[in-house]
Amino acid sequence: MHNSSIRRCGANPVITAAAVCPTNRQMRVVGIFNCGGAYLNGKIYLVCRIAEMFDPVSENTLVVPCMGRDGSLTSETFELSDSRYDFSDKRVIVERRTKKTVALTSLSTFRLAVSDDGIHFTVSPAPCFLPDPVSEAWGTEDPRVTGLEGRFYLTYSSVSRDGVGVSLCVTDDFSVFTRIGMILPPANKDAVLFPEKIGGNYYLLHRPTMDCGIGDSDIWIADSPDLVHWGNHRHLCGCHTGNVWEEQKIGAGAPPVLTDRGWLVLYHGVDMHDRYSIGALLLDRDNPSTILWRTEHPVMEPEMPYEKSGFFSQTVFPCTALKAGRDIVIYYGAADNSICRVNIPLEELLV
Ligand code: MAN
Predict the structure, then answer these.
(1) Is the pTM of this model over 0.85?
(2) Ligand 1: which residue has its CA nearest to atom 10?
(3) From the CA of 259, how far away is ligand 1's center (Å)?
(4) Ligand 1, atom 9: nearest CA belongs to which residue?
(5) Closest ligand 1 atom to the C-alpha of 276?
(6) 252 preceded by cis ω (within 30°)?
(7) Does domain 3-350 have CATH number 2.115.10.20?
(8) Which segments in the chain show pLDDT lower than 50?
(9) Sheet containing 338-345: which strands, arranged edge to edge?
(10) Which of 161, 17, 159, 158 lies closest to 169 in space, CA to CA?
(11) DSSP state of 242
């Protein structure tokens, strides 16, 4: 695919933290990024991940937000000089002895952004729903929206000290969100639902995270009779293709889009330097566990300043792909900071 076919929106980033008011006075919005979206009644609705932090009380301390058991916002304080912890990754605090993440530096929740033209968005002043105080005590992340049987289903990461699992929620109008619950236990994320049943079953792509030394963090496929009970799990595609840009791990990005040639799936691929690029897969329409085609080179890489530098630099992270005439419109998180838009002609993408 030619780089010239990729038309990043001239107004990028289309949504920045400046457009978002904090959840409360103690918090500061540090980013609005990975977002799941859909068309409804001529508008585009994006459910966006926002990340908020506390301002530092002193140069030597880090105060991190999390949900308390009673559902209120609470905090934990770390001394930056405390040698038990590694603060080198801006996103997490890691205990050196156990190599475990003991806290996230920010708390993520979801905000709705609405637009008539897909470029100018209004962001709601309150969260779509608050994280569950137990299974989401460290926040909710990376929503994907699938329009299915006239409703909109949200798959997202539920994060707590017990791990990261995949939860499901449903809305009819992007106003009231009803939780269905955790559908895949930790460690799992990057789950996307197919927008229709195939052969009488619902289908899901997901990404078990491997850290036991066997296997890789790859894309898997599962099916279900009721959207809640998932089984028939199969490994779909792996990160060890010999392509350096996706060598560390991969994960489904946006929910699959049905094309004349099959299901188009945009995914993210991560290299050994934590650089996130976008790849694409084509799956058989009637048997989506069959891969018809996969990109060898990334469809898109971090190239613009707003993609190369941010809260987590060198990151383009797609969670929405919508058909718009001959184009696929992708909304993606740029450097864990802002939301950007790019148009790619479908014909070019499938070459
Ligand atoms: C993980 C997730 C994403 C995030 C990237 C880059 O894959 O937490 O939300 O965008 O890391 O930080």
Answers:
(1) yes
(2) 336
(3) 28
(4) 142
(5) 6
(6) no
(7) yes
(8) none
(9) 7-8, 338-345, 327-334, 316-324
(10) 158
(11) S
